[in-house]
Amino acid sequence: MVHNGIEYGDMQMICEAYHIMKEALGLSADELSDIFTEWNKGELDSYLIEITRDILKFKDTDGSPLVDHIKDTAGQKGTGKWTVIDALDNGMPVTLIGEAVFARCLSSIKKERVNASKLLGGPASSKYTGDKKKFIHDVSKALYASKIISYAQGFMLMREAAAKYNWKLNNAGIALMWRGGCIIRSVFLGDIKTAYTKNPTLENLLFDPFFTKAVSEAADGWRNVVAQAALLGIPAPALSSALAFFDGYRHAVLPANLLQAQRDYFGAHTYQRLEDDTWVHTNWTGRGGNTASTTYSA
């Protein structure tokens, strides 16, 4: 199930990279195929990049790219949704796969989107005017970094399930199995296998030195692509959510302190104090009581 969820994420990220380069840079299907050909020789080498290269080269009977004749409404069988439901049930932030599922849902309301396109405005231009070659490189880095995040999230979910159900998971073996003959097979999975072989109890894939360095080196290009996509009005939900997760994950302090205060203000849900982790309720207005929502049944 997690394999298929990651597959949803991989496919959505590739589609976003394709869309950004097509719309922002005005590249043809043949030009895009050439780019994916180059990408398949490096760190992004994978089955899905390979077939994307082939799809973009494939011509319809009139000689035009077949991909341009395919209706932009994506189907799904449910495994991505199951992954997201399981992530919610286990409290794991598998945000990228969630965005990939919702992107398919958004694509399916084609008629509504066509109506929206006639009513809702965006930026004056969706064209990128900077260095084209550098931007293409940045897109590859955004795709690579987001891919790392997606797999890290998938292994986080499996880690939580293993603790819950007392499973003894061989993460290195899982990566090797996925590399052997699955839709998401890639050179990248060899790096994951190496990380978990070296440290079977690795808390998070991002903590492995190889991936820590890889994300760090990709960060500037990643941020540039996400920022430019937003400025140009080109949707990039998976690439954007991956970056948001990364920034949230690397923050020792998040604004959930204010959220907890809000919950206690309107619902007496209590909060923990930083000093000693004790749970307390505050009478914020002077008009409430001292009874917390955790101390009574309603």
Q: What does this protein look like?
A:
This protein has 298 residues and is mainly α. The protein has 2 domains: 248 residues, N-(1-d-carboxylethyl)-l-norvaline Dehydrogenase, domain 2, CATH 1.10.1040; 40 residues, 6-Phosphogluconate Dehydrogenase, domain 3 (Single alpha-helices involved in coiled-coils or other helix-helix interfaces, Up-down Bundle). The chain is built from 12 helices and 2 strands, in the order ααααααααααααββ. It has a two-stranded antiparallel sheet. Helix 1 packs across helix 5 and helix 7 crosses helix 11. It is globular, with a radius of gyration of 22 Å. The two termini are 38 Å apart. 33% of the residues are buried. The model has no long low-confidence stretch (mean pLDDT 95).
Structure, briefly:
Helices cover 62% and strands 1% of the residues.
SSE topology sketch:
Elements: H1 2-25, H2 29-39, H3 47-57, H4 79-89, H5 95-108, H6 110-119, H7 132-165, H8 171-181, H9 188-198, H10 209-232, H11 237-249, H12 256-267, E1 271-272, E2 279-280
Antiparallel strand pairs: 1-2
Ends: how far apart? 38 Å
Q: Please summarize the sheet with the most strands.
A: 2 strands, antiparallel
CATH homologous superfamily title of the largest domain: N-(1-d-carboxylethyl)-l-norvaline Dehydrogenase, domain 2
Overall spatial form? globular
Under the CATH scheme, which class of the largest domain? Mainly Alpha
CATH architecture type of the largest domain: Orthogonal Bundle
Order of helices and strands: HHHHHHHHHHHHEE
Query: Widest sheet: strand order?
Result: 1-2
DSSP strand content? under 5%
Structural category is mainly alpha
Radius of gyration: 22 Å
Number of helices: 12
Into how many domains do the coordinates divide? 2
User: Helicity range of the residues?
Assistant: 55-70%
Domain 6-phosphogluconate dehydrogenase C-terminal: 1-285
Pfam family, one: 6PGD
Subunit structure: Homodimer.
Protein name: phosphogluconate dehydrogenase (NADP(+)-dependent, decarboxylating)
